[in-house]
């Protein structure tokens, strides 16, 4: 079964709070969806978007926060 694509043409993207502001490697997320978290590369705003389930995103962020600093 094919999945229906989400219309993200009017999405409001939020850049990672860990961004240093000089155009480095950053992720942007869109908070407007409850079941999924759209994620994209801030350097390629018209490029592909990953759509991650909300529970998987929460697990990912939690594991990053608990990881030792590099």
Main attributes?
70 residues; 19% helix; single chain; four-stranded antiparallel sheet; alpha+beta; 4 strands; flat
Please describe what this structure looks like:
This protein has a domain at 26-66. It has a 4-stranded antiparallel sheet. The protein has 70 residues and is of the alpha+beta class. 19% of the residues lie in helices and 24% in strands.
Q: Whole-Å distance between the termini?
A: 42 Å
Task: Classify the beta-strand content into a percent band.
Answer: 15-25%
By DSSP, the count of extended strands is 4
- The 3D shape can be described as flat
Order of helices and strands: EEEEH
Query: Structural class, please?
Result: alpha+beta
- Binned, the helix content reads 10-25%
User: Whole-number average pLDDT?
Assistant: 83
- Strand order within the widest sheet? 1-2-3-4
For the sheet with most strands, the description reads:
4 strands, antiparallel
> Low-confidence spans: pLDDT under 50, at least 5 residues?
none
Rounded Rg: 13 Å
DSSP summary: helix tally: 1
Short description:
This protein is of the alpha+beta class and 70 residues long. The chain has a domain of 41 residues. The protein starts with 12 loop residues before the first strand and ends with a helix.
């Amino acid at each position: 079964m094919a999945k229906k694509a989400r219309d993200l043409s009017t999405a409001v993207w939020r850049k990672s709070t860990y961004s240093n502001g000089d155009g480095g490697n950053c992720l942007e997320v869109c908070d407007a969806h409850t079941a999924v978290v759209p994620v994209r590369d801030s350097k390629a705003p018209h490029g592909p978007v990953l759509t991650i389930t909300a529970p998987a995103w929460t697990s990912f962020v939690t594991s990053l926060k608990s990881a030792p600093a590099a």
